[in-house]
Amino acid sequence: RQLSASLMHVGNAPLSLPLFERLERHQPVKIAILGASVAMSAGCDRNLQPHARCADFDGSVGAKRWAFNQRLGGRPVRGFLLQALDWLNATWPHPQHRVHNGAADATKAGSLERCMLGAIPSDVDLVLLEFISQPENDISAIERIVRRLRKYPKRPPLVHVATRDWCRCTDAATGARVIEDWRYNRSCGADCGVRCSLPPQMFRSWRGQEDSMAKLCRHYGISCVSLRDAIYSEVMAAAPGYSMPEVAGDCVHPSKSTRGPAIMGDLVVHALQRLWDDARPLLRASARPEAPP
């Protein structure tokens, strides 16, 4: 149910045909991602981007760098961009499949669009987008990015991944928002020097930036994945397995939780699988020889 609910828009299969035609011919493809910190935590190839923060999310290291010079320990995390690569390699294995992470921490679409040409290869075959983690993002800027990507040489299919700002952690004494990590059922003083109010203040309104993005996805035929649509009921009910430490340890980033990376990976892979399911009959029809007159 969650996987089906997560797809606000499946995406137009004909737009994905160049990608799957290349894969079916056993040729390598390039996948890229644009967005902010959630996209940065989607991972990248340590050999290609060894100095980028995204390399810490390739599943090989525990200590990870975060924005604003934070460095936190923890278990290894394999980001959802690399999980998408894993799915491609499991379905169409090739040693030269590549991923490129062009994300920029704490950066809205309006700023990113000015430098996106140098952020990812121009011959990319598939692009993931992640812009909803930044509050009040400019939907017009996102649309301009979409239109520019549609003019790239291979006209790559696009998949937008929307996370959710679930809650707010506040200083119990002052009421000020705590930006750093909080730790559920204990003081977060070791991390940020304040005692957080527990539990966090949950944002229970259903409406969000996902709805504006869904309209854009439908207009341009983009696959649109929403974490809210997948697990909202479970998170609001504090169901087992869906507490904030399990979904987004700082209320926003799935990578700062125990289950968030796996959930995000499942949603992205499901969206790609749905695109492939819809594109496969079209590929077969185009390969079928024409009947004699």
Which H/E pattern describes the elements? Answer: HEHEHEEHEHEHEEHEHEHHH
Low-pLDDT windows of residues: 179-196
- How much of the sequence is in beta strands? 5-15%
Compute the separation of the termini in Å: 47 Å
Report Rg.
Answer: 20 Å
Task: Give the overall pLDDT as a whole number.
Answer: 87
Shape: globular
Helix content: 25-40%
Summarize the structure.
By secondary structure, the chain is of the alpha/beta class. It has eleven helices and ten strands.
Q: Can you lay out the helices and strands and say which pair or pack?
A:
Blueprint: H1 2-6, E1 7-9, H2 13-24, E2 30-35, H3 37-40, E3 64-66, E4 70-72, H4 80-91, E5 98-101, H5 109-112, E6 126-130, H6 139-149, E7 158-162, E8 167-168, H7 189-192, E9 201-202, H8 209-220, E10 223-226, H9 227-236, H10 244-247, H11 260-287
Parallel strand pairs: 2-5, 2-6, 6-7, 7-10
Antiparallel strand pairs: 1-10, 3-4, 8-9
